[in-house]
Amino acid sequence: MNFIAKIREDKPFIFNITNEVASNFAANGLIAIGASPAMSHTPREAQDYGAMADAVVLNLGTLTEDRGEAMLKAGKAANEKGVPVILDPIAVGGTVFRTEIINDILATVKLAAIRANAGEIAVLAGALEKAKGPDSMIEKNDPEIAKAVAKKYDTVVISTGETDVITDGMRTALCKNGHEMLQNITASGCLLSSIIGPFVSVADDKFQAGVYAVASYGIAAELAMKKAMGPGTFILALLDELYFLTDEKVKRYKQIQER
Ligand code: ATP
Ligand code: MG
Ligand code: MG
């Protein structure tokens, strides 16, 4: 499927409850890929937005009581309408508050995908005690751990690191696209979580949508680094390359290994 063309044609409406650090970058990235974003975190409109969106992204950064309440409301409203929900469980296990909210979401909201770094995925699997902060605590991105989480929550898991793992528990793909400069800017994972929204919104096969989203994002980062001088220009170039991305480029540059 030509995901990029489809996204640009459909302009899916992506409702994000995300953090203060990522908000502007994620909104710009979503516009660049061809989606129509809304960012809001008040519980009073979470239900309406959750029900009208084409995809909902719940990101646990800069968590507040309001954001937590809004996420549960938006997630449940989205579930009722069959709208796909993506979870980015930032620093799960790191504090009691966020871990409780994440567990509430996992227990009450059916997720289309979970996108997190390999350390956070390991915490969800019960293979690692806790994430200390937003950065991944482990080096190895183990497909078996991602598969266990996918099965546990009956969802697609996108576990990121130097090599990204995408799995629905049955099918697994490894993606080598991307660039280490993504580690020198803030919210690169948050933007990826938001970007997964439009991809899963236009396809029934959430695994294939996840694979295509991860490859697309990684390729945009690679192309951006051909023009960037450092982290500052990379941020701008990444937005440019998301804007100029095509299905032809994704097919030409993708480094996907399905297994
Ligand atoms: P954030 O800082 O936004 O919370 P995160 O820790 O949740 O990010 P990461 O695992 O850092 O998420 O992934 C963000 C992006 O960086 C992904 O596209 C991923 O492929 C890429 N990435 C992560 N680690 C590396 C690495 N060592 N080399 C190259 N790319 C990487
Ligand atoms: Mg990281
Ligand atoms: Mg993160």
TrEMBL record:
InterPro entries: Hyethyz_kinase, Ribokinase-like. The keyword Cytoplasm does not apply. It holds the Pfam family HK. Its EC number is 2.7.1.50. Keywords: ATP-binding, Kinase, Magnesium, Metal-binding, Nucleotide-binding, Thiamine biosynthesis, Transferase. Substrate binds at M39, A187. Catalyzes the phosphorylation of the hydroxyl group of 4-methyl-5-beta-hydroxyethylthiazole (THZ). This is Hydroxyethylthiazole kinase. It comes from Oceanobacillus longus. The gene is thiM.
